[in-house]
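Students often ask why inverse folding is considered easier than folding. One informal answer: many sequences map to the same fold, so there is more than one right answer. In these notes we will look at a single instance of the problem. The structure comes first.
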């Protein structure tokens, strides 16, 4: 049957298409900036509240510390890791670029792709594999959907959100903010009102530095894991938004929700020590009143859809960044769709190999190793932005493979490699423990070593940079002012716009 109103149908399709984000790794023009800095609050508060975030609390309990000392390490690790990720968030409004593209001035056009971009892609795949396992398990337990079908259903919903992009990701998290807060309050009541939470469970017990520091690194690493993509969600804010406001809206929102979520997860693990994460939260919820466990899983599943969308969105930007390094591309909607679906397929394959029964081991190792690989990068990137170039970059040169930032940024790359080598003796993992960590009875100091070593090395290596010439190019280009004011936007190569 013919469409009785083809004009209306066409208009509807056009409206849907127009709602899909067009920008990806290119600079966001000042004329297209929108939103308020407080919008970051809902995004970063909600982003920690999901099945995977809660499962982090279960993972820390597997380290072997008592519940009391695990909670203390969790609080300190969350506050520490959030500090660095919030400063990365502050770069977004000032530069209008995704986080990874900002690594080209430190690592070079090609160097960034073969180091930072690859590590970031591993980050997205690892987290979304964990999300896939839990989403399949949750939908199977609540709705009796086969785990494979459950993951595919969740992935398709997340892919749709990721395709529509930045606005929709922010909007979904705003919708979830109030239900998430209510859920956390009720789960807290359930956790600490449980009959199993007697004085013996909460007793501090003997303090052991090794498991305490491992918990600290795991939790700090979880928060540091946001660093490679945190400014992706602040880059549309007006350039007049200050660093301080962006930092605090990101830091407080993410740190508070992380502490809250990880502590509830740790308590759930103490109450049901042998259960998988989904079962543990069901037990915890039903302890408050029958049926609440199902509500807990459903709401946490909604939060998981949001974070899956964020990971697919970030994974898409990473794949596009890698492709753009080797051949100039147009960032069309079709390309964004293809890269999002590629992420979905890769994660599906890995999740089927891992399986839910091995979730705790997979996720725990992922948290540790991701913390190690991003510790040097975060120091290098922040030192470059705040202390070396002070937020002044030549935008067109960031997209120029033969520009002033070079093919290989030896300063960033060498700082990174040296720092990793220096960190290895301090690392504590399941397959390997460094000789200094062994001598220190298993205490992991790697993060405290890596951050200052990478930062100081990079600062020393940049002492001979011709920043005066670069400042002249920044002023001539006109995309940035000392305070990020609105100026011309026509110098970014046309092949990076749709």
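Output (designed amino acids):
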């Amino acid at each position: 049957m013919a469409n009785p109103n083809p004009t209306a149908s066409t208009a509807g399709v056009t409206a849907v298409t127009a709602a899909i984000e067009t920008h990806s790794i290119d600079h966001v023009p000042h004329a297209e900036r929108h939103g308020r800095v407080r919008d970051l609050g809902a995004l970063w508060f909600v982003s920690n509240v999901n099945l995977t975030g809660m499962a982090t609390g279960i993972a820390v309990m597997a380290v072997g510390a008592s519940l009391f000392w695990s909670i203390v390490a969790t609080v300190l690790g969350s506050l520490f890791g959030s500090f660095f990720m919030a400063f990365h968030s502050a770069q977004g409004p000032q530069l209008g670029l995704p986080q990874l593209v900002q690594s080209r001035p430190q690592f070079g056009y090609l160097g960034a792709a073969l180091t930072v971009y690859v590590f970031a892609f591993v980050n997205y795949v690892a987290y979304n594999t964990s999300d896939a396992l839990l989403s399949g398990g949750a939908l199977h337990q609540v709705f009796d959907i086969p785990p494979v079908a459950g993951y595919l259903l969740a992935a398709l919903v997340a892919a749709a959100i990721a395709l529509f992009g930045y606005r929709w990701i922010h909007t979904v998290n705003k919708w979830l903010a109030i239900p998430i807060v209510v859920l956390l309050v009720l789960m807290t009541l359930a956790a600490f009102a449980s009959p199993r939470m007697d004085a013996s469970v909460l007793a501090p017990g003997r303090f052991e530095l090794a498991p305490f520091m491992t918990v600290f690194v795991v939790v700090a690493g979880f928060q540091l894991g946001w660093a490679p993509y945190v400014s992706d969600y602040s880059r549309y804010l007006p350039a007049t938004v200050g660093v301080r406001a962006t930092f605090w809206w990101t830091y407080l929102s993410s740190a508070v929700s992380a502490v809250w979520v990880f502590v509830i997860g740790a308590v759930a693990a103490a109450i049901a020590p042998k259960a998988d994460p989904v079962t543990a939260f069901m037990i915890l919820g039903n302890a408050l009143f029958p049926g609440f466990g199902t509500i807990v899983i459903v709401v946490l599943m909604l939060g998981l859809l949001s974070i899956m969308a964020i990971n697919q969105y970030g994974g898409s930007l990473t794949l596009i960044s890698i492709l753009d390094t080797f051949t100039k591309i147009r960032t069309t909607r079709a390309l964004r769709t293809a890269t999002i679906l590629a992420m979905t397929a890769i994660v599906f394959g890995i999740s089927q190999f891992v399986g839910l029964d091995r979730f705790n081991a997979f996720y725990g190792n992922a948290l540790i190793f991701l913390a190690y690989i991003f510790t040097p990068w975060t120091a290098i990137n922040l030192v470059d932005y705040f202390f070396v170039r002070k937020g002044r970059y030549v935008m067109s040169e960031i997209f120029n493979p033969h520009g002033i930032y070079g093919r290989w940024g030896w300063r960033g790359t060498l700082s990174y490699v040296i720092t990793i080598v220096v960190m290895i003796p301090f690392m504590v993992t399941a397959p390997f423990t460094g000789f200094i960590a062994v001598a220190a009875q298993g205490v992991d100091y790697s993060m405290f070593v890596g951050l200052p070593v990478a930062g100081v090395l990079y600062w020393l290596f940049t002492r001979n940079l011709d920043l005066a010439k670069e400042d002249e190019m920044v002023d001539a280009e006109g995309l940035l002012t000392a305070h990020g004011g609105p100026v011309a936007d026509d110098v970014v190569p046309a092949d990076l716009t749709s």
